[in-house]
Amino acid sequence: MRKVLWAVALGTLLAGTGCHRNTRERAEDTAEKAGDKVEDTAEKAGDKAEDAAETAGDKAEKAGDKIEDATDD
After folding, report:
1. Is the pTM of this model over 0.70?
2. In this structure, how many other beta carbons lie within 10 angstroms of the beta carbon of residue 46?
């Protein structure tokens, strides 16, 4: 009976250690995926900001051209 109790206790400890390792690995994977998503989102936001700045620059240039054309006469 005593050997059975020791075997059960040891088995429980080993199973707990394995679960902890899997949980830690899953947490690391989740954190890595979250970091990748944040990086992708930041890159997309940067691209959108760059596009918006380029569009604004184009509009300002067109407005400047119109003013220049109007004052040339």
Report:
1. no
2. 10
